[in-house]
Amino acid sequence: MAATLLLSVDIGSTYTKGGLFRLEGEELRPAGREVVPTTVDDLGLGFDRVRAAVLARHAGGADASAVPVYWSSSARGGLKIAAVGLTPDLTLSVARMAATSAGGKVVRAYSYELAAEDLADLRTVDPDIILITGGTDGGNSRVVLHNAARLAGLASPAVILYAGNRKVRDQVVEILEGREVATAANVMPEVGTIDIEPARDVIRRVFLERIVDGKGLSRVVAASGRDPLPTPLAVFELVRAIGERVPGWEDFAVIDMGGATTDFYSHTKAFHGGDAVILRGLVEPTLKRTVEGDLGLRVSAEALYKSEAAFLDGRLRAAGTDPSALRTYVEDVSRRTDYLPQDEPGRGFDRLLAAACVRAASLRHAGILQRVFTPQGGFLVQRGKDLRQVRRLVGSGGYLAAAAGPDLLLEACAPGADDPDTRHLVPDAPACYADAGYLLPLLGNLAADFPAAAARAAVAGLKPLTANKD
Amino acid sequence: MGAPRIVLGVIGADCHSVGNKILDAYFTEAGFHVVNLGVMVSQDEFLDAAVESDAGAILVSSLYGHGLIDCEGLRQKAVERGLDRVLLYVGGNLVVGKTPFDEIERKFKAMGFDRVFGPQVDLAEVAGLLRRDLESRAN
Predict the structure, then answer these.
(1) Quick one: DSSP state of residue A76?
(2) Whole-prediction pTM value?
(3) pLDDT of A137-146, one tens digit each?
(4) CA proximity to A224, closest of A232, A214, A234, A216
(5) Residue B48 C-alpha, separation from nearest chain A C-alpha, in angstroms
(6) CB distance from A381 to chain B under 8 Å?
(7) Are B52 and A138 in contact (CB < 8 Å)?
(8) How distant is the Cα of A83 from the closest Cα of chain B, in angstroms?
(9) With 0-12 CB in 10 A as exposed, 13-18 as middle and 19+ as buried, what is A66?
(10) CB distance A144 to A161 below 8 Å
(11) Given CB atoms, is A138 within the 8 Å cutoff of chain B?
C-alpha cells in the first residue's frame, strides 16, 4: 500500500509549526517539521509559509492539493470563556471543567445572581462565550432565569451558552431572544453527576465560528478544506487517545508550560476506593485538564512571583541567593516576553520559575487525602483527583520540551503540605518524558481521524528523560 | 411537577453508611426524588445540594452521638443561603447517653429542625409526615 502524506499545522501566538506525517498502513511516522514566526495580522500568511516550507523540504515539492492539512490555532490567546454557576463547589466548578476541557480559558467565574458590577466586568473582559449553568434538571431555576434576564441586556458580542437546569431551557432561550444563544444538556443533571461532553461540543463549534471569522483564517479553512481545533483541545483529544489506546499509558499526565499559562492534563481514574477511604465532593473525570493563568515564565511571571512567593523565597534562601535579584529578573522578563537568558544567573531564575509552575500546577490539579479521626476510628477523606497512579509524566511547551533531565518534571511530585495528616495526591514517582519534537499538538490534530496511529506515534516520538522502569 | 426532591446524608465525621443506604432505598421507593450525599457530609454540602436541586427538605442522619454540635447553625445557614422554606428533618442516635427523647427533640427544634426522630422510628410514618409537611409548605 502506498504511503499517504498528511500535514499538520499549529498556529501558536508566537510560532506557526508544521509537521509532515507519513501514514504507512496503521502507523503514522513523522517525516519532517518546520517553524515560522506567526504572522499576527494575517494568520494565513504564516500558514502558507510553513506549508510551503514543509512540502518543499520534506515532501519533495509535492503539490499542496495532494497533501491533506489538519490544523489548530491558539493565536489570539485562545478562547475566552466566562463561567456562570449557581453554587461555587457544584455547578460553577463543573462549568469551569467544561470550559477548560473544551480548550477554553476561564477568564471570569461567577456564582449565584449576577450583579450590575459583574455585567460591567463582563463588558471589560469581553469573553467569546458566556457559559450559564445552575440547577440540577428540575432543580433551582430562579437564579438561571435571573442571570439570563441580566445577560439579555448586556452589550457584548459573546455567544451565550446555556447548559443549566433543563426545565427552563426554553424560557432562557426566549429571554435571550435576539442574542446569539446556544444550548447544551445540563452539565450537572443531578447533584454530583457530571455531564460536560455536550457543552464541550458546543464550545468547540463556537470556537470555529469565532476564530475563523477574522485574521485570515477563513482563507485557511478554504485552502485546507478543514476547520481548525483549538490547540488545547487537540492535545486533550490526543491525551484521551493515548490513555485509551496505548498499552502501559493508561495512567499518565502532560504538563504544558508556556509564557502565559501552565496546562495540566491527566488521564487516570480519579478515585480508587479502598475500605477506609471516603470520597467527598464531585467525582472528577478520568480525563481532566486544568489551565493556570497565573503560572507562566514570561507574560505571567509577575503573577507567578506573587502566588508562589513562599516557595520561590524558600528555594532562593536555601541556595544562598539574594531574593531581590529574582524580583528584578521577573519585572524584566514580564516586559520582554521573548527574552532568553544569556547568562547562568538568568538561566537559574528561569529554572526556578519553571519549577514553581510545575509544582503549583500539579498541586492544583491534584486532590488531597486527609486523615480524620472519628468515634469509629481513623478514616481517610479524599477530595479531588488522585494522581498517585500516574506512572508517566510528559513535559511539553518550549521550556519543558527542551529539558535534558527529569528533575524539573519531578517537581510535580513535591509534597505540598507540612500538615502530617494531609497528603496532596500528586504523582508518586513517574517516568519522565519530553515532547522534544513538539509532536503533541501536531498529532492531536490527527487524533480525530487516526486516533490509534496518532497515539502510538506520539508515544514513540517522546524523549525519555528517566531510565525506563518497564 | 414530578417527585418531591429531598436531600439525604449523614452529617459530620459520621461514617455509618448502612442506615443511609436503607433510607435512600426506602424514600426512593416511596416516590421521592432522593439526592443522597452519603456519609461524612458537611453542612455546606447539604445546603449546596439543596440549592442546586431546589429540594423541599433536607434529611440529616446522625448516629454517633455528636449530632448537636454537627447540626448547630444549619437552620441559620440555610436562611442565609436563601433556603428560607426548606424543611429540616433530623434522626438517629442524636446524643450520647440516656437523655430522654423529648429533651432531645426540644433541643433540635430549638435549633430550627422541623421534625426530630429517634433510632426506632417507623419510616412509613416519616414518609407520611414528610409528604404532608412538603404539601403544606408548598401552599
Answers:
(1) G
(2) 0.89
(3) 999 999 999 9
(4) A216
(5) 6
(6) yes
(7) no
(8) 16
(9) exposed
(10) no
(11) yes
Supply A201's cell numbers. 461540543
Tell me how long chain B is: 139
The whole-angstrom distance between B46's CA and the closest CA on chain A is 11
As a whole number of Å, the end-to-end CA separation of chain B is 14
Task: Give B85's contacts in chain A (Cβ within 8 Å).
Answer: none
Chain B hits for A192, CB-CB cut-off 8 Å, are 37
Q: What is the mean pLDDT of residues A328-352?
A: 91
Q: Which residues of B are known catalytic residues?
A: 14, 16
Residue A48 near residue A39 (C-beta atoms within 8 A): no
Q: Is A161 left (phi over 0), alpha (psi -120 to 50) or beta?
A: beta
pLDDT range class, residue A258, cuts 50, 70, 90: confident
Q: What is the dihedral of CA A45, A48, A49, A52, to 10 degrees?
A: -170
Calpha distance A409→A396 (Å, rounded): 10
- Output the furthest CA–CA distance in chain B (Å, rounded): 43
- Across the interface, of A134, A192, A374, the residue whose CB is closest to B13 is A374
Joined together, the cell numbers standing for residue B97 give: 447517653
Q: Above 80 in pLDDT, residue A210?
A: no
User: How many Cβ atoms from other residues are within 10 Å of residue A173's Cβ?
Assistant: 16
Among B66, B71, B63, CA closest to B93? B63
- Phi/psi region, residue A282 (left: phi>0; alpha: psi -120 to 50; beta: rest), is beta
The predicted complex's ipTM stands at 0.87
Over the stretch B1-55, which tens digit does the pLDDT of each residue have? 589 999 999 999 898 999 999 999 999 999 999 999 999 999 999 999 999 999 9
Q: Which amino acid is at A17?
A: K
**Among candidates A288, A241, A234, A229, which has minimal Cα distance to A456?**
A241
Mean pLDDT confidence for A437-449? 95
- Among candidate residues A157, A145, A152, the one with its CA nearest the CA of residue A177: A152
